[in-house]
Task: structure prediction
Amino acid sequence: MILALLACAVQAADVPAERPSPADPALLTALAPTLSRLDADHDGRVVAAEYDAHLWHGPAFADVDLDHDGMLGPIELATLFLAQDPSTFDPDERNPLAGLAAAPPPPPMEPALRQAAAGGPEVQGMLLAGVMQWMEAEVHAKDPSRPLPPDPALYAATRAGRLDDARAQAVFRQLRDAWTAEGLTFPEGFVLDSRR
Amino acid sequence: MLLVSIDTLRADHLGAYGDTRGLSPNLDAFARDAVVFDHAWAQANTTVLSHASLFTSRMPSELTRVASSSVLPKTPPTLAEVLSVYGYATGGFTGGGMLDPCRGLDRGFGTFRSPGCTAGGTFYDSAPPALAWLEAQPAGTHSFVFVHGYDVHEPYLKPSPWGRLFDPGDGESGLIPEALQPHLVFGRHLFRDPIADPGIANLVRPWDEHAQQLAETHLAAAGDRAVALGDGDLARLRGFYAGGVAYADAWFGWMLERLRASGRLDHTVVIVLSDHGETLGEDGRFGHSHSLADAVTHVPLMIRVPGATPRHVAEDVELVDVLPTVLELAGATPPAGIVGSSLVPALHGGALAPRAGFYAEGNEAAVSWRTPEGRLTFAGVEASSPYLPLLLEAAPLDGPSFDQSTVPPAGRAALRDQLLTERKVLAPTPETLERVDAGVVEAMRRRGYWEKQQ
Result:
């Protein structure tokens, strides 16, 4: 990081052609409010203590104070701005607490995600399983003694099926009875034999 | 034309929208020369769906399955495609991730640059090449450049000193800043890996009383897999988010000053918006894909047209209105089937036609209808599901599916009828859908984007 900073400051020609120069007037204008924000006591100088108050994995004040005048100047702030790439979207770096415990069990929704990624008719089964979960939640709200979340194995079976699948129809019939018992109007179209 | 999309930026964090902390001095200066739409609403709560909607002026479910793995299909026409037909040179420069060719969102751009399908680049990556591309266009060329960055998106902490510019200081947990990851926070606890915890994984639906009960149940068994947070910890997270706003503001300021210095600003239409906002713990969660609350759907929309009188527009508008607005400014005819309306009358001081309400579709199984009376949100069923109208009609208005609504049960029937009407006139979701690579889905999951198990 420090090397990168110095390289930017000392030899502007090393800056990629499309990146602005630390001395770009447009950049200095844009960063002027940041410099004012850092100047906590409003004396027109950003000193080490004011810089350190916001330091986070950045270079030490001595390394950004390139002219060693004890202040962070506009071009020094611009140099710092251009030298730090904020792209830290690597998921491996996203959870510093991940190492605190043993490796986690397989994610419970992995099969569903795989199916979603692959596409195809199994999406229909996933949608039906989602409908079942939704219906369970509505019944649970009326009767909290019913289990929530629902039995994942039941829906895992449905997830691979279709509306006319025997397992799906069995679940929907159960749900229809539960809805009716709770005084709810079960939506039409899910229990196929009810239309005959 | 310059279209700037600042991913995940809440409207209420800009001075132009009432914030008093000074997070956005450059954007606020721009706003003083622009037409500011005080009440602009996003159609979706994720980057891919909101930009797909922005680029086509269609609702997300008309385009694809409303899910994290979705891809913009090869139809209908995009804004860049239409402008290309009218002779515009088009360039897109993004932070990648959901705004990458792997999601189909490069369609229509003559030049498109992204750091990759699993990247999360900021304006640090996209703004310099975008300006270089614009400045390289021959004189007299009509140009349209789209610039996007994840500067405000999590991970909130941006480089020093911007990342901690608004940090209020240590929290009660003693967690170091990089450990305070917003997508791991559920209520007042930070879970080591909520995806791997079956109990917490089921809390993908927005925070409500049932979710609270489940969280407490699973917290008891979580042991050292969870860390209790205090008000100070949550305030720190909000401060880190504010630092991201300041970082994005600096890059935006550079783009604008560069245009000004080159003389282009006087004949460039500049549009600034965000694809969605962010909840900052108001509902027990930090993020956006789980919610259609105002914190997520209320986005900044500011348009600077040379010669137009700066003003604030009070009428509600939507991001789907951007495409017809840009095309009218360009003298182009919008494609058939769009759902937005041109905002050009407002840019010239006129009034906009009143609308009954505003429809939005959420990534984690929800749709909402926002009216002056409040917002009706129906959750639990995928927005693109063909069963949604049936279930919406059958759902008890006082049931958990409507928990996120801001209107009381007594006032929900009329709004449900309006929502059903709105939903039924939309084109059905295509039956054949393109999907991103399974590896990308896995990478998204690990970043806190995961889909309801259905």
